[in-house]
Design goal:
alpha/beta, Rossmann fold, 2 domains, 7-stranded mixed sheet, 6-stranded parallel sheet, 10 helices, 16 strands, about 25% strand, globular, binds NADP nicotinamide-adenine-dinucleotide phosphate
Length: about 325
């Protein structure tokens, strides 16, 4: 079967097209014929080696890239009673979806409703689950609360705006260009401002009567985190859930005190998908919202196993708006 693997860490040149044997479903797992894979910034972080020493997301080389996908169960391993061949399933945070077949632990694979196309399912679970726990579990958003979402036209940004609005919160958003700002507005953000070298903070503070927001969602890290502190209200929450510009290595906790007794958290999706029931609960909400039209996730671009490098480049050059899909089989 065709796969895209990395045997060492680095730039797009380390992606290798390898013809590998079709794997066998080990006990407790499913062998899935992958129809579509989601393409994520996390694939780039993985390729660059940023998870080399991670305990949450241990990567072992060689690694078949891709940690999100949807397809049809081809075989079930010993002991699996929850799924059967022919089931349509979606999963994330399991490596190996840049391939024609993937082995997925049964507890991590959710059944996809018949009415939901598999390509939409493949681009919805990783961002959907992430935005879901960020909005509801970490931010505890609701009426009377306010939040700021950075990188608002990105894969997670677009979903987070919609879930935050749905909760009743007031949503501010930042992004880097007028075109991207239009996307964030379309997703429902109440006020969208360009970063403008940190001057977005004044706009956010002014719009909140000088107070700042309750929760700042920061996926950018190094270049934005200290501005995020300035945009939060006293005793507000900073959620640094990504580091696309690099991670902050020189933070003194005293800065949180000086910024208004802030709370800072660096959460991870794996800790918010602890068992099959938790995954099912998030999936039901995300799939249900996609089906009733209250959540919109549009596919930002279509790629194949022959040109996935182009998608990686679009992410790294900051050209990707929303969520691309990797078509493993023709639609
Ligand atoms: N903690 C978790 O549970 C969790 C779960 C899923 C993903 N993540 C992380 O969340 C982050 C976002 O993931 P995503 O797939 O949704 O990506 P994305 O937001 O679609 O893409 C990244 C966005 O970041 C902004 N950006 C700012 N500085 C950048 C830079 N130096 N290089 C590239 N982009 C830059 C760009 O938007 P502007 O041009 O508008 O700034 C860009 O569109 C990643 O770090 C990912 O690993 C974390």
């Amino acid at each position: 079967m065709k796969t895209i693997q990395i045997h060492r860490y680095g730039g797009p040149e380390v992606l290798q097209r390898i013809d590998a044997p079709v794997p066998v479903a080990a006990p407790g797992t499913l062998l899935v014929r992958v129809h579509h894979a989601g393409i994520n910034f996390m694939d780039i972080h993985t390729r660059q080696g940023k998870y080399e020493t991670s305990r949450t997301y241990p990567v072992r080389l060689p690694c078949t890239l891709g940690m999100e996908g949807a397809g049809v169960v081809a075989a079930v391993g010993k002991g699996v009673t929850t799924h059967q061949p022919g089931d349509r399933v979606a999963w994330c945070i399991v490596w190996g979806s840049y391939a024609e077949y993937a082995v997925v632990p049964a507890w991590q694979a959710v059944k996809v409703p018949d009415a939901l196309p598999l390509d939409l399912a493949a681009v919805s679970v990783f961002q959907g689950y992430t935005a879901h726990y960020l909005a509801h579990d970490v931010g505890q958003l609701g009426p009377g609360k306010s939040c700021l979402v950075h990188a608002a036209s990105g894969g997670i940004g677009q979903v987070l705006i919609q879930l935050a609005k749905r909760s009743g919160a007031r949503v501010f958003a930042t992004t880097s260009s007028a075109d991207k700002a239009a996307v964030a507005r379309e997703r429902g953000a109440d006020l969208v401002v360009l970063y403008d070298q940190g001057r977005f903070v004044e706009a956010v503070r002014e719009a909140t009567g000088g107070q700042g927001v309750d929760v700042v969602y920061d996926s950018i890290g190094k270049t934005s985190l200290r501005d995020s502190f300035r945009a939060a209200r006293s005793r507000g929450l900073i959620v640094n859930y990504g580091n696309v510009s690099g991670s902050v290595k020189d933070l003194d906790p005293l800065e949180l005190g000086e910024s208004g007794s802030l709370f800072l958290t660096r959460p991870r999706l794996a800790d918010h998908l602890r068992d099959a029931a938790e995954i099912r609960r998030r999936a039901d909400d995300i799939f249900g919202a996609l089906l009733d039209g209250s959540l919109k996730i549009s596919i930002a671009g279509r790629y194949t196993l022959d040109n996935v490098e182009e998608a990686h480049a679009a992410f790294e050059e900051r050209r990707m708006v929303g969520k691309p899909v990797l078509d493993i089989i023709n639609r």
